Amino acid sequence: MFRSRDKKTPEPFQDVSQGLKKLYRTKLFPLEDSYQFHDFHSPALEDADFDNKPMVLLVGQYSTGKTTFIRHLMEQDFPGMRIGPEPTTDSFIAVMHGDQEGMIPGNALVVDPKKPFRKLNAFGNAFLNRFTCAQMSNPVLESISIIDTPGILSGEKQRISRGYDFAAVLEWFAERVDRIILLFDAHKLDISDEFSEVIRALKNHEDKMRVVLNKADQINTQQLMRVYGALMWSLGKIINTPEVVRVYIGSFWAQPLLIPDNRKLFEAEEQDLFQDIQGLPRNAAIRKLNDLIKRARLAKVHAYIISSLKKEMPSVFGKENKKKELIANLGETYLKIEREHQISPGDFPKLQKMQELLAGHDFSKFSTMKPKLLEAVEDMLANDIARLMILVRQEEAAMPSQAVHGGAFEGTMSGPFGHGYGEGAGEGIDELEWVVGRDKPSYDEIFYTLSPINGKVSGAAAKKEMVKSKLPNTVLGKIWKLADVDKDGYLDDEEFALANHLIKVKLEGHELPGKLPEHLVPPSKRHQEIDMGE
């Protein structure tokens, strides 16, 4: 009775963050708690997990430029920063915004309710002694937080010297961050077994993963092509998905390029990566919503597995033998649940890992099936999430300019060093002379072969010449609209020259402008533009 009334008049959410917290506490957490989800998969979520700024996790072998990359983004040193060719960063460092510059040690961090790190307490002192927060006032950190990680070591060092489960800690962060950036060194591309193991541990989060091939200015173009091919091949084998991970190539630090041959490529790649990072605050709410849905699906499957195992257990004798048998035949339990509840195989936890975890649990303490708890999660996925999605879109529309600013993000925003400045349709932007005038004599020769009447050629006559470019009609139509400045349906000699200039821009691989830039307006039409504007 109560449930149906709740369905009819759902309580409105004030904002996305509050809605996510409420759904988790009232609908998902009871299911997780009842079936010991937190012992098997992931600790319970706290308010700080929903309130925190977007986080970027940097992962890579030592000396791939992780710490330098952070320094490059912020254009400022951060407390505890160490850079060198040897394994320098031996700690997890959360670089976050704070009015007071300083370091907060791991043990203090995990008791701070305002920080989203309380559940890292479970990894023990060996990890907490290697975890710090560097706080500083920096405009980049007003929008995002960055997690620097220890360089991944080769061989036995990785497993023995750490004293904590490195891959498990990375997986914990991966669940909670908005972007995972894997850094590789183009100069010495070597993916160790440990790095492969770490990438596999992050496998469920490919949607958050981006790859940076750093220090690419240290090799020439031919070597870079080979390195890029080798990297893609290696990643294809490790990640084992049909989709290709996005790889950004460049040299992410503020030093002169050693081999500047690929400067334009590096600039374009850096711009793309910066845009990806700048979009994180705008997409943070949808990411948290997506992660909650993923978690709810796993919690549902986990509840089916645990209740199924409980059902199979004898009430009195032979419990231990039955437990061993059930663990050995867990794959069959998976198939049975898959068929009974029409669940996708991709929603199930990894079989081997689940078998290892089950071995340490007392099956007699497991809960039986509780339909009401599962119904609450089903209702959340079917109805509440849809309501929250509408709210997400409303919040995004209300804050369209929400983006990361400051640091390296400001350097290429505008001015002559902005990406693509003075190229394509932007060519001649700073010149006093009309840039189209340079090639106008050659365009005039063609113009006068088209038999102009009263100094103008018709659309049909211009079309015959323009189609010789082999550009599609949709593009030529846009060029016509831009070139016919006075909108009279004809082109005079200046407009015809402008049309040919725009065709050249497009053929050279640049995009056409949405509106004709001021510096491309023919000189005789500039006073008309002002009149039309008035």
From TrEMBL:
Residues 50-281 form the Dynamin-type G domain. Keywords: Acetylation, ATP-binding, Calcium, Cell membrane, Cell projection, Cilium, Cilium biogenesis/degradation, Coiled coil, Endosome, GTP-binding, Membrane, Metal-binding, Nucleotide-binding, Phosphoprotein, Protein transport, Transport. Its main location: membrane. Residues 439-527 form the EH domain. Pfam families: DUF5600, Dynamin_N, EH, EHD_N. GO terms for molecular function: ATP binding; calcium ion binding; GTP binding. This is EH domain-containing protein 1. It comes from Salmo salar (Atlantic salmon).
